Amino acid sequence: MPPKLAEIVDEFRSAPRDVVLEMLLEYSDEVPPLPASMAGHAGMESVPECQTPFFLKASVSADKTVTTWFDCPPEAPTTRAFAGILASGLSGASADEVLSVPDDLYQQMGLAQAISPLRVRGGSAILARLKRQVREQIS
């Protein structure tokens, strides 16, 4: 797992349950704005498992560094927080590091006790699509 993401996982795992929701709200602000070229979600993939409109794109450069883009409305802070966690934790990560992220990331973070199973399922779908996009670009 990328070191930045491992730190985030440890922070959530060790945080008291009442602080976890506060931490999630902080990460909902970590989603960078989309470039103009992605206006209207051009070239992005929808994640229908999310309860709110969610779009993502992963791009692997020649040196195998992954860049991610996410879009989710601000009125969906929990789902947006998943994007913020991935944007922060995967920043500068290699394709191999992204692919090594455990599929049960959100359970490892202890989020299953703090948020609804539907939201955890949406977060897992986001990660699965992101990893699939990376795999497709390196094969």
From TrEMBL:
Domain of life the protein comes from: Bacteria
Stretches assigned to the Fe-S metabolism associated domain: 11-133
Check the record and name the Pfam families matching this protein: SufE
Tell me the InterPro entries matching this sequence. Fe-S_metab-assoc_dom
Q: Which Gene3D superfamilies match?
A: 3.90.1010.10
Q: Which family does it belong to?
A: Belongs to the SufE family.
Record's protein name: Cysteine desufuration protein SufE
- Protein species of origin: Asanoa siamensis
